[in-house]
Amino acid sequence: xxxxxxxxxxxxxxxxxxxxxxxxxxxxxxxxxxxxxxxxxxxxxxxxxxxxxxxxxxxxxxxxxxxxxxxxxxxxxxxxxxxxxxxxxxxxxxxxxxxxxxxxxxxxxxxxxxxxxxxxxxxxxxxxxxxxxxxxxxxxxxxxxxxxxxxxxxxxxxxxxxxxxxxxxxxxxxxxxxxxxxxxxxxxxxxxxxxxxxxxxxxxxxxxxxxxxxxxxxxxxxxxxxxxxxxxxxxxxxxxxxxxxxxxxxxxxxxxxxxxxxxxxxxxxxxxxxxxxxxxxxxxxxxxxxxxxxxxxxxxxxxxxxxxxxxxxxxxxxxxxxxxxxxxxxxxxxxxxxxxxxxxxxxxxxxxxxxxxxxxxxxxxxxxxxxxxxxxxxxxxxxxxxxxxxxxxxxxxxxxxxxxxxxxxxxxxxxxxxxxxxxxxxxxxxxxxxxxxxxxxxxxxxxxxxxxxxxxxxxxxxxxxxxxxxxxxxxxxxxxxxxxxxxxxxxxxxxxxxxxxxxxxxxxxxxxxxxxxxxxxxxxxxxxxxxxxxxx
Length: 536
Ligand SMILES: Cc1cc2nc3c(=O)[nH]c(=O)nc-3n(C[C@H](O)[C@H](O)[C@H](O)COP(=O)(O)OP(=O)(O)OC[C@H]3O[C@@H](n4cnc5c(N)ncnc54)[C@H](O)[C@@H]3O)c2cc1C
Description:
This protein is α+β, with helices and mostly antiparallel strands. The chain has helices spanning 11-24, 80-88, 106-112, 119-122, 125-128, 165-169, 203-214, 230-244, 249-271, 291-307, 315-336, 354-371, 408-425, 451-464, 480-490, 507-510, 521-532, and strands at residues 4-6, 27-31, 51-55, 62-66, 71-75, 92-93, 129-136, 139-141, 178-185, 187-188, 192-200, 224-228, 281-289, 311-312, 340-350, 379-387, 391-401. The chain has 17 helices and 17 strands.
């Protein structure tokens, strides 16, 4: 955890904080909504600098909107739901809907290269962001015409003018600076929104349908299309059962959400006796656009569903399927109170290895679960959430029953680790949209980063932040010295006091992560207050 939490309200305050951090050798950690699932906010351990978390929650304003060009500049601390509401009041949308929209922020989305449910229509975050302003040790970085403060000219639009700053910042995971605002694309709210759902006879049928959808022209694809496997489909039925039997709280709420989908499923079973309820998979869709566009999308996808041997379940079931996604985050914590340890992980998987990857992840998890002597069987379920021409994003839910286990988290981590290794071994990515943080850094080497590529990224880090003010140490930008620092602290007998204390500014030479300050928090607090007038 950090020593100090700071709440800047303006870009200038952020810049003065960075100046202060250099003078006082603080380590700054940008904080958005805290929703990352990659240990990206786990503070560096073993260092002797004061770690100051820069919480962006007070920088949540829409700075300007240029409807004619379809652009808006928004402060990076804005929370997803807030931004959605602020834009909707003007009849606009950004179109980014991650499952964490209630808590995550624009800055966090950019820093992790996030992806939302409506990617097929609006793209991933990299498609939505036109320009960024980022406060760095080198000053405020931005790219665009001079007079950037004039809304009509402020954005750096499509240009052939060398490297783009935004590509340095997208995925930077807090290692390079603090994103203070971004220029994003905005669209008129869609005239028409329709949900849809379907059941398909098997996972193979479902995946073939998703493949066919990925080949449709973009204007004919639903804004969102998601396929849940049989285990997740049956989970919905169990939740519904819980509701019927009077389960309260989250269980009842989740059961209520799943009810129409389950009932539609039951009707289908009845209509088609002989089809196996332990093979059926579920599809939920959201069509968006003008009335004509939605009509065309629906007609095309319905034809594909019929060709795949599926049946439609209606709009209500589709809405439930879409919204159940938000509920799943709450179910995880609920399950924990019943000794069920669970979490999701995701990756991009190419079409060519998709079947093998799904099968081999399941096999490795089951085998490892048995090897470690865990009770019963693991719960492993997958959901395809995004389709691309070249592959899909798969979300896995992994859980185990851990009552009585000596270290349930260690068992869970081991299962998750083998699953991720299997994905990467078969050509999948380390992450499709959650980022690397610390949880997945070890997998980067396996995923085709050549030594030269790693060195280039270290050069970027050293060039932008030579004294490692932003020493959070995520992903490939976590430079070796950070790890040594950890090691130094944990080695018996090597107390912090024995670590060399560098002179201020000496970090330029020694690079990254070396302990530099006297570790006394109080004077720093006072200094922060005095220097920037910040609330601490
Ligand atoms: C239930 C649940 C559902 C989720 N669903 C999705 C999903 O659908 N799609 C998806 O992409 N992700 C999802 N995530 C993951 C998470 O929400 C994303 O990674 C999100 O982008 C993180 O945003 P945040 O504002 O919470 O960032 P934080 O967790 O606060 O920070 C994440 C990283 O970004 C850096 N950072 C944050 N703000 C800034 C800034 N202003 N400047 C520089 N660096 C910054 C931090 O230092 C850190 O390294 C989900 C997570 C949960 C818990």
